[in-house]
Amino acid sequence: MSNREPSVIGIDVGGTKTLGLVIDAAGNVLLQEKWPTRQGAAAVTEMLAELAQELRSRIATTHKVRGLGVGLAGLVDSMGRLRRAPNLVDADEFAVRDLLEPRVGMPVLVDNDANCAARAELHAGVAVGVRHGVLITLGTGIGGALIVDGAVVRGAAGMAGEPGHMLVDPAGPKCVCGLSGCWERYASGAGLAYLGRRAADRGDLASLVGTVDGTPEPIRGEHITRAARLGDPEASAVLDEFAWWVSVGLANCAAMSDPEMIILGGGLVRDWDLFGPRVRRHLNEVLVAAEHRPEIRVEPAAAGEAAGALGAALLAADETGLRP
Ligand SMILES: [Zn+2]
Questions:
Q1: Which of 76, 110, 116, 163 would you call most buried, defined as having the most Cβ atoms within 10 angstroms of its Cβ?
Q2: Can you name the CATH fold of 5-122+305-319?
């Protein structure tokens, strides 16, 4: 057993599923495993410890595991605590690192899931070689990561790169966070649904409303994208409005960080062909001095479903010296 190769584990805890994998020093994925996510901080701790143990024992004959990286949705601080987690049940102020380290007997590194996804894109995705970038995940809400000098920036307390609650319309609708008019009220999956309901309230989308009980209330984002695909011009107009709001937030991110590339990930990127070109076009309309600066490449994420877990593993690889 003494000549086993070094490796690290990465686990990404999603709202419904949790993906764990093991990588070697070169960042190659050796094996991976997907479990349903358990609910509540105590159950998540248990799940993480069990999944890490399972992965470790499956690779034990050839590899020694020297660290565990964990990616979680929400505000994660530099002490390995999940401070606020709107998409997980009962997981605010969850001291992930301190609870888990004694259970697994190795260093535990914790970061936000979008930061982890950005590490995966830098390593093996669309952002290989990128020095300055922004990654935005468009899902139920909006996540983000800031790449400076080729590395993910965590900020003073570990919470940098969270643009979902930038105020883009202070007179706008109330957000889950308590503020009003946050970017994710318009530019997330929930935002697309809101824009659809608002259009229906003013009398648009009549044929779509006819398919969902005759009222705007049940309209969700996927209804809009499906109708737009089928050629409904009013659904296409809502999608265009959505792409404009996405661009507004991207322009704000770009004004702050001057990225060479903006990477868009998250569930909504499934419909990249529908809204990606519109985002690129609108970004040039709302970006300051667009004609006087190099074009910012806007690209869909490419690291796939395992991006969060791979990025968590890469974090552990960096912090335990597995990668120089
Ligand atoms: Zn908000």
A1: 116
A2: Nucleotidyltransferase; domain 5 (3.30.420)
